[in-house]
Amino acid sequence: MNTAAAFADFRTYPLISALTGVQTLADRVLVRWADDRVSPFHHQWLRDNCPCPQCVYTVTREQVLEIVDVAQDLMADNVSIDNDGCLAVVWQDGHCSRFDPGWLRAHAYDDESRAERQQRKPVARLWHSDLQLPVFEYQALMNDSDALLQWLLAVRDVGLTQVRGVPTEPGSLKLIAQRISFIRESNFGVLFNVQSKADADSNAYTAFNLPLHSDLPTRELQPGLQFLHCLVNDAEGGESIFVDGFAIADALRREDPESFKNLCEIPVEFRNKDRHSDYRCLAPIIALNALGQVSEIRMANFLRGPFDASVEQMPRLYKAYRRFIAMTREPRFRLIQRLNPGELWCFDNRRTLHARNAFDPATGARHFQGCYVDRDELLSRILVLQR
Ligand code: OGA
Ligand code: ZN
Ligand code: ZN
Questions:
Q1: Which of 62, 65, 120, 331 is deepest in the core (most CB within 10 A)?
Q2: Sign (positive or negative) of CA dihedral 207, 210, 214, 217
Q3: 73-111 per-position pLDDT tens digit
């Protein structure tokens, strides 16, 4: 690896295609690659991304230059391909920049390069009731970083996984969650105990059925990953149910576009309170990202406040809400499976909705432990494992 690449960041950039020619225009440099692609780079962009030790602190590999500190119309005096195959720029003010061709190609913003990058982005693999559930072994995940990576990719792309062979001692969930990163604590604890209790501070801690929901929709940022680890499951009932919220949103978008739009636009309040806390969050049930793709589902009927929408919106909101809930009950979307001791669910809480059937505490004990890890931690861990 040459020095230009070493400064860029903690990743390495393979040489995809060598630089073969450069041409300088008034506001940009046109770079030609060995595979005949031509990538324009504006002078400002090149100056902004100079990887030299004056512009990027070599220890953190973070930028110290701010582009406003160089002239807006700064021109290159000389642009060439040096002996190492790097793009070398001498600026009018005397500053010199060198760009590794692997790095430059990975960041090129001609249409073709951008389309290629878009194609390589992970996409959610939508699933229905016939999902081949991705199942992983605890011991492998604890000892083998490749097995760990495969699991995390499934959590990212499918949004629902099961792990088997987990010890049934209380607290053992912590060890496997920490294979990803630190746990996101909440008012229910670092680990929460899902058990039927007399003084329940959530319907989750009863024996009632829990309809399909995401956890903590009452928070501005819903937890990204949720774990549910079964220690004891002797009670009758209590089966786990999952739906892919993105698959439902996708079907709703096609089958009832008006309702889809209303769920994206009309905010709903979710609430959870006890003696010491009072959480509320007002947000639409379906969130879209900047590209208009479904990026999050927020739903828990048992935590919902009264709708507060305009008189004109109210009937539309009810129509859309009823339709969404009706879809979560449709067999085509539902995966139903009982969790046994030593097994755990790990799923994307901002995508995959989960439910449990009612159970009968008179027939035996039922004890699950749960915890959360944020999506950022998952994505960061994947990138580090892939380095
Ligand atoms: C919860 C929950 C599922 C279960 O505690 O939020 O969804 O199977 N529990 O008890
Ligand atoms: Zn520099
Ligand atoms: Zn839940």
A1: 65
A2: negative
A3: 999 999 999 999 999 999 999 999 999 999 999 999 999
Q: Which residues in the chain come in under a pLDDT of 50?
A: 1-7
Residue 94 burial by Cβ neighbours in a 10 Å radius (0-12, 13-18, 19+): exposed
For residue 355, the ligand 1 atom closest to its alpha carbon is 7
Alpha-carbon distance 193 to 260, whole Å? 35
The domain 3-117 is classified under which CATH number: 1.10.10.10, 3.30.2020.30, 1.20.1440.230, 3.30.300.30? Answer: 3.30.2020.30
Structure letter (DSSP) for residue 33: E
Nearest atom, ligand 1, residue 370 CA: 5
Q: Which two tokens stand for residue 364?
A: 């035996």
Is the distance from CB of 165 to CB of 136 less than 8 angstroms? no
Phi and psi torsions of 57, nearest 5°: -70, 120
Average pLDDT, rounded, for the chain:
95
Residue closest via CA to ligand 1's atom 7 equals 355
CA distances from 147 to 150, 153, 261 (A): 5, 10, 40
Global model pTM greater than 0.85: yes
Q: Which of 232, 228, 254 is nearest to 242 (CA)?
A: 228
135-386 has which fold? Double-stranded beta-helix (3.60.130)
Partners of 29 in beta bridges: 24, 41
Distant-in-sequence, close-in-space partners of 190: CB < 8 Å, separation ≥ 6: 174, 183, 371
At 334-387, the pLDDT tens digits run 999 999 999 999 999 999 999 999 999 999 999 999 999 999 999 999 999 998
Q: Which of 48, 47, 16, 40 is nearest to 111 (CA)?
A: 40
Question: Could you tell which of 160, 197, 228 is best to mutate to test the pocket of ligand 1, judged by most ligand atoms within 8 Å of the CB?
Answer: 228
Residue boundaries of the structural domains of the chain: 3-117, 135-386
Residue 9: its pLDDT value, please? Answer: 65
321 forms beta bridges with none
